[in-house]
Structure prediction request, 426 residues.
Amino acid sequence: MTATRKPEGYIGDKPLRPESLMSSYGYQPALSEGALKCPIFQTSTFVFKSAEEGKAFFELAYGLRAPREAENIGLIYSRLNNPDLEILEDRLSLWDEAEACAVFESGMAAIATTLFALLAPGDVVLFSEPLYGGTDYFFKHVLERWGVRTVGFPAGASPAEIDALVAARGLAERLRLVFVETPANPTNTLVDIAACAALARRLSTPERRVVVAVDNTFLGPLWQHPLKHGADLVLYSATKYIGGHSDVIAGVCLGSRELMAEVRTMRTFHGTMCGPCTGWLLMRSLETLKLRMTCQMKNARYVADFLADHPKVEKVLYLGHLAETDPQHAVYRRQCLAPGGMVSFRLVGGEVEAFAFLNALKLFKLAVSLGGTESLAEHPASMTHSDVPAAERERLGISENLVRLSIGVEHPEDLNADLAQALAAV
Ligand SMILES: *Cc1c(COP(=O)(O)O)cnc(C)c1O
Prediction:
């Protein structure tokens, strides 16, 4: 439960679950001619009732004084705030039980703006590998140019191995941020968020708090809540499950009021907020978020079970199939609420067999991205991860025979029928 939850988020003193609030929370029909649904506030600027009100709004927006009892920042200009964004942010905060949220025009905008808000030249960032390709490029080619050192550790490394890496490279004094993507794409390898948070706390000093940021795009906001495991910030590409219909690009960052104030300030000056139409589309998506993600999660299990039994499949990489003896299983039990909707697998063979399979698919569409209502298939080694050097790909398990599936909301037997006929064509 968050300190900022509004009164309509309760019945009596009982907090309502997020899915019960996604159609109404944070919106007052009386302010919009009684409209049941939140309109699209397609406006760049807002009219002040008086000069005094305008002055008061700016004092709060620019942090010139502390807010008075029950005083909120009023609407000023759509780069700073807009009802479609504010209501969306209130709703998104409920899933991760975050104090504050900011929405962006893309997942990359959320990541880049957040990192520019928190980092300065000379800082060190530790990150799990593999990372989403855009984030990886941003770390190695943009942050490095601004004097930030970025150092990777393999997802699945033990806490002791990560400690040893930090000590051996002499990073401890300058470490400012630990960036985690879990499960890792496309191998579904987990990173232990609590262990990263413990490392960050241990290396923090009163002057330099080490922040843990988790890209939660793959399992959140339904199946993994990083803030509960000690993370400071949660990031999303809302293009994926949150948007869920492959028709919008957007991003999210959530965390404490204090950290988010820095992120929001940087958003104001980078102008990376999303527009009102995007905000409205995402609010519509949130109404079915639990329905979609639950269906995708159930379908993924059917698909993963089918693939695991197929003679042309060498190995299935799926969180629901982790063996009890696998060290990853303990992390999964602690950190994840369900295995989600992403299934990767290695075909018997190499690129030729993988391509034959992909070209034969009928219901699955051959496309990158994920989390939409339709099922998608792609070949990481030659598509999403083609700019990772071959030796690195090998080390991270991104082999030529690996295919990644994003499972949608179709009938699971139709999905398996499509996989069966495509495998038969190999
Ligand atoms: C897609 C994705 C991103 C980037 O998001 P955009 O909305 O495409 O900018 C970042 N992280 C992960 C894990 C992603 O899948």
Summary: Residues 357 and 422 are 5 Å apart (CA to CA). DSSP finds 14 helices and 14 strands in the chain. The mean pLDDT is 95. The two ends are 51 Å apart (CA to CA).
